[in-house]
Give the backbone structure.
Amino acid sequence: RLVESGGGVVQAGGSLRLSCAASGHSVRDYDMGWFRQFPGKDREFVAAINWDGYRTAYVDSVKGRFTISRDNYANVVYLQMNRLKPEDTAVYYCAKGTNVDDFRAHFWGQGTQVTVSS
């Protein structure tokens, strides 16, 4: 399974780092992604990283503020979120999938809540 952590409440302009740890399976041969879901909305793509960490993709609204990275030895994927805005408030999910440039999720974590106060 995939387990997200690192969510919480932060003031606008602050930072959080989300972690996604895999247990019971390896993610090192897979592309990985982060999604988020706003209340009453569908889940939306945030960022993806290819299996070796050399290619990444981001939704326009987070470019320059969020950074996805991975540690294949530790079997963990991260999402560093800087200069957070209230509109980043959502439940964040990590996913194992394919195709960084048009990411398709095949396996999901349970999500972690991020709340940005103004």
About this structure: The longest strand covers residues 90-98.
